Amino acid sequence: MSGITTHVLDISQGKPAAGVPVILEIEASGGWQTVAEGITNADGRVSNLLTANSPITTGVYRLSFDTAKYFDGQNTQGFYPQVTVVFKIENADQHYHVPLLLSAFGYSTYRGS
Asked: Global pTM?
C-alpha cells in the first residue's frame, strides 16, 4: 500500500468524487517538488498515488485537489477552485491517509487510517 493515500467524497451528493485531479508534493529547497499525481477513480480514490518504489520520507507534504475541474464536470459552480492540504510527516514508517470531504461551498479534511 502507498505510504500516502487520499479519498475524495462529495458530501453534498453523498457519493465519491470521481475525476478530481490530485498532485502530491514535498517541500524541498525552499519550494515544492512534485512527488506524484493522479485522478480520483469511481470510488473517489487515487489507487496508485505512490508505488512501492516511491517510499515516503519525513517532511512537509502538500496535496492539491483541482476541485474546479470536478465541479465543472458536475455542472456545479463551486466556491473553491482548488483545495490544498499541507501536512507534516514525522514518522515515515506509518501510513498517512488524507481524505477530503467536499461540497460546493465548503470542505473538511482529517488524518484517517
From this structure: 0.94
